[in-house]
Amino acid sequence: MIVVLAGGVGGSRFVDGLVRVVPPERVTVIANTGDDDEFHGLYVSPDPDIITYALAGEVDEARGWGYRGDTFRWLESIRRFGHETWFRIGDRDLATHLHRTRLLREGRTLAEATADIARAFGVRARILPMSNDRVRTRVVTDGGVLSFQEYLVRDRAAPAVTGVRFEGAEAAKPAPGVLEVIARAEAILIAPSNPIGSIGPILAIPGVRRAIADAKAPVAAVSPIIAGRQLQPPALEMMRGLRLEPTAAGVAFLYADLLQVFVMDEQDSDLVPKVEGMKIRPVLTDTLMASPAKRAALAATVLDAAAVKY
Amino acid sequence: MIVVLAGGVGGSRFVDGLVRVVPPERVTVIANTGDDDEFHGLYVSPDPDIITYALAGEVDEARGWGYRGDTFRWLESIRRFGHETWFRIGDRDLATHLHRTRLLREGRTLAEATADIARAFGVRARILPMSNDRVRTRVVTDGGVLSFQEYLVRDRAAPAVTGVRFEGAEAAKPAPGVLEVIARAEAILIAPSNPIGSIGPILAIPGVRRAIADAKAPVAAVSPIIAGRQLQPPALEMMRGLRLEPTAAGVAFLYADLLQVFVMDEQDSDLVPKVEGMKIRPVLTDTLMASPAKRAALAATVLDAAAVKY
User: Fold this and answer.
1) Average pLDDT over residues A62-77
2) B105 contacts A92? CB cut-off 8 A
3) Contact state of A83 with B99 under an 8 Å Cβ cutoff
4) What percent of chain B has pLDDT over 70?
5) Whether the Cβ atoms of residue A100 and residue A49 lie closer than 8 Å to each other
6) Cα three-residue angle B96-B97-B101, rounded to 5 degrees
7) Nearest-CA distance from A37 to chain B in Å?
8) Min distance B93 CA to chain A CA atoms (Å)
9) Beta-carbon separation of A101 and B67 below 8 A
10) Do A71 and B91 touch (CB under 8 A)?
11) ipTM attached to this prediction
């Protein structure tokens, strides 16, 4: 089984490529839930939803999140009551949040709700939230301590980042199955997601980082930074704020204790010595994922680099 | 102040006529909440919403409920999760239920939530739910004990009614203001609503019926039954099931202890002796409310009959 640690847009596109190369049933995604939040009384789980919609072929390709062709009529209507509407939940998307909220209120775990939703969308890959416990990414900025959505969506990653906290992580347990799939994996892949905001929370759950380091499987990561530009905000803003090198090499540094292989864009060949200096094998390829075919090609390159047969 | 006891579609149309004749601020509606129910984890309050939307000019005129021109995209989407979708909540309508549910979860009362929603819609008449406590109309049928919405919307009033219960009514208190406005009213009007399913729950709240009987103001009702046909289902089905005469006179009988005036359709002139036999003064007019002008004319006739100056 191939295990993928993933955030939202970049992660979902990578997993979409992967299931075009190997049977979806062979893939287990451990998804970031540090961005989960409540809006209008509903429990919203952005990254697992993006992954689910992408694997179901329902995602809005241009935005990378939400349902294809969704409308926002309920959102326009709730403005009447004075509610903030900067977090854009579409009419169809809302049904998912209503369903999840109801399952959680009925006592189901987040992992059960995530699996139920994926099943309803006909997704055959397994999607595990990193934890059933509440972990909240807080971005410390010059504009105050913000939730991840406040920072990214409401404030468009404009406030200067001075720190990042994963509230609740210390007391959180990995979701059932997380440590088991890591231990049994034939390969562990870290998707081209924000290393601080998306992969950071997963690695902050006690036991997860150690399990990956101890796993027998090869561990490979894909850089979400290409020639100093990012696949999705706010990886660069967060890395700069934390005084990390905002390059593919800076990403490799964050995973240095875990990786055997680091897949980076061919435009970043000048960074190869730095990565090799971390005793990680660099692999250069086109990492942009501009089309389904390119996503599949990237996944194939990563599998080859990790010596996984497919 | 003019107090109106009202249900949904018929009640809202009557109140809409009334506020075309007198300033809305002079009108207080006591609305049935026996049809309130939970759908998809949301608290839905059909009659207060219909009244609010009607007074805001936002109601779908053809259906008589819901928002004008609403869409049902979230509802189509939630079907994916196996939920029943016979209760048709539109995308815009859903925003109201999300807002109300949130207010109630935050500890606001139903009356506060109802007032907040009416204010957001710019409604100047006062809308009071009959009670802040949970009262649920249960329709006993040959198909089992059903909620009002199951009976009316899902089963289209097809099961034969053998009884009606207002669960929770005995322990419920009138919402703050209900008894006060009844005591201080210059007139108390019972809208042309289902006398069992819509007005019945209001009169079942301990103290309400007595307060109306004791009030100094004249009490007038308008028949929702015209020539043996109903303005809205399921008044006739419920009256027949309870072996009540399914006519305007049967409606007058249900309110006989309360009424001085009973406004009935001119097509029902043959029923005048029966109403007079109950020591109620019958007033014949066109009660169909087919247009805003006709609604206003009906309201004027009722006010005249109750000797209210306007």
Assistant:
1) 94
2) no
3) yes
4) 100
5) no
6) 120
7) 15
8) 7
9) no
10) yes
11) 0.89
Regarding beta strands A126-129 and A161-167, do their DSSP bridges make them parallel or antiparallel, or are they unpaired? Answer: unpaired
Q: How far apart are CA B32 and CA B296, in angstroms?
A: 22
CB contact under 8 Å between A91 and B71, yes or no, is yes
For the residues A285-303, what does the mean pLDDT come to?
97
Assign residue A134 a region: left if phi > 0, alpha if psi is -120 to 50, beta otherwise?
Answer: beta
Mean pLDDT within A128-156: 96
What pLDDT, on a 0 to 100 scale, did the predictor assign at position B1? Answer: 96
What are the two backbone dihedrals, phi and then psi, of residue B306, each rounded to the nearest 5 degrees?
A: -90, 5
**Averaged pLDDT, A121-128:** 98
Closest Cα in chain B to A71: B73
For residue B229, the one-letter residue type is R
Which pair of structure tokens corresponds to residue B163? 């009884």
B135-185: pLDDT as tens digits: 999 999 999 999 999 999 999 999 999 999 999 999 999 999 999 999 999
- Residue numbers of chain B with a pLDDT score lower than 50: none
Collapse the DSSP code of B296 into the 3-class scheme (helix H, G, I; strand E, B; otherwise coil) and give the result.
Answer: helix
pLDDT-derived band at A119 (thresholds 50, 70, 90) equals very high
B38, B58, B81: best to mutate for the A interface, most A CBs within 10 A: B81
CB contact under 8 Å between B77 and A71, yes or no, is no
Nearest to A71 among B71, B93, B121 (CB): B71
Q: Which residue of A has its CA nearest to B91?
A: A74
Mind telling me how many Å the CA of A209 is from chain B's nearest CA?
Answer: 34
Residue B43: enclosing H or E segment and its boundaries?
strand B42-44
| Inter-chain CB proximity A76 and B92 less than 8 Å | yes
The model carries a pTM of 0.93
Q: At what angle do helices B91-105 and B110-120 cross, to 10 degrees?
A: 140
Mean pLDDT estimate for chain A: 97
Length of chain A: 310
Contact A116 B41 (CB under 8 A): no
Q: Which residue of A has its CA nearest to B78?
A: A95
Spatial contact of A29 and A127, defined as CB atoms under 8 Å apart: yes
pLDDT of residue A182: 98
Q: What is the 3-state secondary structure of chain A?
A: CEEEEECCHHHHHHHHHHCCCCCHHHEEEEECCCCCEEECCEEECHHHHHHHHHHCCCECCCCCCCECCCCCHHHHHHHHHCCCCCCCCCHHHHHHHHHHHHHHHCCCCHHHHHHHHHHHCCCCCEEEECECCCCEEEEEECCEEEEHHHHHHHCCCCCCEEEEEEECCCCCCECCCHHHHHHHCCEEEECCCCCCCCHHHHHHCCCHHHHHHHCCCCEEEECCEECCEECCCCHHHHHHHCCCCCCHHHHHHHCCCCCCEEEEEHHHHHHHHHHHHCCCEEEEECCCCCCHHHHHHHHHHHHHHCCCCC
Q: Is A82 close to B120, i.e. CB distance below 8 A?
A: yes
| pLDDT category of residue A107 using cuts at 50, 70 and 90 | very high
CA distance B219 to chain A (A): 36
CB pair distance less than 8 Å for B99 and A71:
no
Query: Chain B: nearest CA to A229, how far in angstroms?
Result: 36
Chain B hits for A42, CB-CB cut-off 8 Å, are 98
